[in-house]
Amino acid sequence: MDVVRHGGIAAAARRVEPSGPPVRADLEDVFRAAYARVVGVAARVLGTRDEAEDVAQEVFLSFGRTAVPAAEAPGWLSVAAAHTALNHLRSGRRRAAREGQAGDGLAVSPDVADAVVTRDEHRRVRAALARLPRKHAVALVLRHSGLSYAEVAATLGLSPGSVGTTVRRAESALREELNRHASSSD
Question: What is the assigned CATH class of domain 1-93?
Answer without folding.
Answer: mainly alpha
